[in-house]
Task: structure prediction
Amino acid sequence: MPIKWRSRSPESVLAEWKHLVEDLGAQEIGVLDDSANIRVKRLEELAHALIENKLNHVPWIFVNGIRANLASKELLGLLKQAGLKRTAFGVESGDPEILRSIDKKVDHDTIRQAFKNAKEVGLETIAFMIIGLPGETRETMQRTIDFAIELDPVIANFSMMTPYPGTKVYEIVKRQGRFLINDWEDYVFFEQKARYEMGEMTAELVEEMYRKAYRQFYLRPSPIIRRVKTKDFWLNLPRNIRIAANTFVPKKEKTGLRRAVEAEGAI
Result:
């Protein structure tokens, strides 16, 4: 079955942009489309329109990222002129074999070049990384942490793999692993707990490496200095402390859920 992608015209997006800026007084705009640069010409037309209509004074962000293999320096430079402040890229894994196993279709050199291009034109960057993909070991997860440090984005977002029903990973876990999910509430994204085990990849190992990723990336001098220099850090200090505590401090294993899963089976 062919995969189709339908886009809004640059004119349609521009009209909404004007409404946000001129009628609602938007001070920053977040673009959620993670396929925005699939058609480069369309994105270039939108960038030129933002510049020509003098809407580029309001900063905007690609919240969910764009394709690394289509992030040329020329395109990113134009988007910077159009007001783009920050963009994310889906990196997923720092291990080449794991990256191939999830059919990423983008190699590490392409990802490196995308981050390099973004930084050279003055854009802030975000890296989305996944800990605990099928087939992972302590060593492959460490490579993901090391790759995030090499890329050195402003924000590294590590998440534990969640096998949502209907996905390829769900079917793999169903055949080869064990779910640690007993209710739909267990799929909550920010719960900071492993959702499955497979082979030697235990929940304890995944959660250990997840917290290590945040410690090893953020407790370096450069990210600390970068963060404390921002106004946002001090305005949200209590929240930042709470998030850091929840992320860095290991939680006790929830053996009750594990026992229930073993006794009753998972969804």
